[in-house]
Amino acid sequence: MAQPHAVVVGGGIGGLAAAVALYRKGWAVTVCERAPAPDPAEVGLVLAPNALRALDTLGLGGAVRARSAHTSGIEIRRGDGRRLLRLASRARRGFDGGAHVLLRSDLVDLLLTRLPAGVVHTATAVSSVEPGDTRRLARVGTEAGEVSADLVVAADGLRSAVRSALFLEHPGPVYAGFTTWSAVVPDAGVPVAFGETWGRGGLVGVLPLPEGRLHCYATANAPAGENAGDEKAELLGRLAVRHDPLPALFAAAPSESVRRGDVWHIDTPPPAYHKGRVALLGDAAHAMTPNLGQGAGQAIEDAVVLAHHVNGSTAYLPTALHSYTEARMERTAQTVQRSAQLAEAVQSESPSAVRLRDVGAGLLGRLAPGTVTRFLDRLYDWRPPVEPARV
Questions:
Q1: Per-residue confidence (pLDDT) for residue 147, from 0 to 100
Q2: Which residues make Cβ contacts (< 8 Å) with residue 13, sequence separation at least 6?
Q3: 183: Cβ–Cβ under 8 A, 6 or more apart, which residues?
Q4: Rounded distance, CA 148 to CA 130, Å?
Q5: How confident is the model at residue 121 (pLDDT cuts 50, 70, 90)?
Q6: What's the rounded Cα separation, in Å, for the pair 53 and 353?
Q7: What is the pLDDT of residue 1?
Q8: Average confidence score pLDDT of the chain
Q9: Least enclosed by CB within 10 Å: which of 129, 142, 331, 352?
Q10: Contact 147, 30 (CB under 8 A)
């Protein structure tokens, strides 16, 4: 039987994870990335236990753990720095609680090491996709010509052209109303409690990175598309909370490390995560706000589940993709919704709503911490699909 061929549209974390997962199942893979090089951004990336478990399936969990800093839990504080609650998941049944934090560029590098030379084609934009069906292969148009594929993985991000072409009536991404800044900060030499502080109209967070560095981030309500030019100065002026040592940490950030990005999400799920022989993956299917730290993790889960479901006869691939949609849509849609709900609470500028939020979070932390733990367990305690035993 001929080796099946997959074309992956997009060379970000989700696309590369899909390429690795399919390659490990015996597929020939072509990754088309329109940028001239893989994303080199040195920004912090949070991977929760479910993401690490998916990476274990790809043979990368150990390498990621070795390159990341681990925190067993984070504090949530109110604007004056007083602790409201602690987010931590139970360590049980081999459950790898807490989060691992590393540079996005390090994860991209590790994924690339698991692919043969020549698989990733940079500066290669995809101009069209014909989804195919049970009898016809999919067709992918590029500047270099058309390519046939048993499977096309649309991992082309928030503004996915493939999603738009497959589902013409889908409304696309919605602006969440706020922007984010992140920075990699050298060791500031001051004690730092890892976690987030929630203020009026935004938050500030600090998490560990390897070698004593810090992943610092902040949010603020702002119109879409603003560009201040000097984003470090803009960030320092827009911090929603200013208790020590937060202003000093951001002041210590190299200006070139400060990155800004508006937050958009897929508020309305597409009708399905597939059509014909095309599967949507990651932000192309379910872009979410960053509040639960699940964007990359859900994309990596997608990759593992997709490879599991297409690990069979390509003649029945559209049926396998239907199973992929069924396996992923409910979980990812719920995560998008819960992340958006949390973002709405955190970004509120109403003094009364902020007081109610903080009182509620404080009571939850003191009187019902198990409620928070159970919520995190449902999110984090995801298990990769089990391959059927061979006879």
A1: 94
A2: 104, 107, 108, 111, 282, 296, 299, 300
A3: 216, 217, 232, 235, 250, 253, 254, 257, 258, 259
A4: 9
A5: very high
A6: 37
A7: 60
A8: 92
A9: 352
A10: yes
